[in-house]
Amino acid sequence: MPDISQIKDDLVTANHILARHHVVDSFGHVSIRHPENPNHFLLSRARAPACVEIGDITEFTHEGAVVGHEPGKPYSERFIHGAVYEARPDVMAVVHNHSPNVVPFTVQSRRKMLPIMHMCAPIGTDIPTWDISHKFGTTNLLVTSIDMGRDLAGTLGKRTVSLMRGHGSVVVGKSLREVVFTSIYMEINAEMLLKAYQLGDGDIVPMSDGEVAANAGGRAGFTLERGWENWCREVGRPYYPMDWNMGPGFSKTDK
Q1: Contact at 8 Å (CB) between 161 and 127?
Q2: Strand ranges (DSSP E) for 90-217?
Q3: Residue 202: is its pLDDT beyond 90?
Q4: pTM of the predicted protein model
Q5: 4-233 in CATH: which number?
């Protein structure tokens, strides 16, 4: 396992990559479960993702309390991350974003967010929308308490993505690389899906459950490292190689 300083450095890199690909802008955040204490997680202090440095990384409990050194004001929506980690032991990384092509899908139900491109398969075909007003009434739409975070985590359930009405989304993954990969391609997929809907009357052919399973199940280190190495180069961040293993059903000749 990489040491804690490398893990924090990769978390800084994840912030910069997500900003470079317009998944986050001055707002939004990405976290990782603490590698030594699964009841804690690591997240930057409240800062624009493209500006995040290793000294900004803060340790939190699931309830959103700071552990140890506090480099600055924490994100008010850290409760999204804590509640998801609490509810999902399988989740190792979380992204909350206001991805611009995704947000339109959060405020209507006629034309749903669906995977139409193989690279976006992990978002799945069953993507719920969490509406904060259903339980908490009139708010500013921000998730500012652990109760709100837990309600959102309940809507997410065992899925990879939940939309957030009028706000954005939460995306989860089994690794930092995976959650960044999924978040980037969900934004790309959303842009393509909007164009596909504009081409006709909304009768599109999304990926099937079987196609989603075949793509997501076969995704492994080779695919994730290929993207991560390239994105590190794009943002001028160090690349720490991990496992380039092939996924099941894929060969070294697959592209």
Answers
A1: yes
A2: 93-97, 129-130, 161-164, 168-173
A3: no
A4: 0.93
A5: 3.40.225.10
